[in-house]
Amino acid sequence: MSLEIRNAAIVDLGELHYGRKRIQPTGRVLREFHEAAQTLLKHSLLTFSEEDVEVIAASFNDAIRQHNYTCYACAVMPDHVHLLIRKHRDQAETMIEHLQEGSRKAVLKLSRREPDHPVWGGPGWKVYLETRDDMVRTATYIEKNPLKAGLPSQSWPFVKKYDGWLPGQVTIVRKTKPRPKDS
Q: What is the pLDDT of residues 57-76, one digit of tens each?
């Protein structure tokens, strides 16, 4: 998500591209990039093991419960995660921070990384969805992501089936007890 290259050592790795490319690079191109980058990076490129994936999901479960978020889809991949979370009183950046901080601590407890090694590559990427079709399409994409990578499907206890909720909808709550009359 950088707008400029600030470290001269990585300039030769390739042209800077902001955001997601319309056509994604092939696996071979990505492997070649990672191989070339490995010698230039401060930290080694690490992926999440099966145990890491379980620990990350458990930390997401804790954060989602603690902050009362509604999660409609989640895929924890070896090198990234996807979550579809309903709009909430917390800003998207705050939700991402809660999820990243808890999972970072959980992964570091496994002692397979040095304490100064980043777990996440930055502040996360957020996209706001406006229609039910967008929500269903995105949930389906996230659910299929592990399968496309040759991994087993994932099912997490904190993921709720999408219920048609959209931002901007108003929910009216009626109190069950009548209010006392003013004197």
A: 999 999 999 999 999 999 99
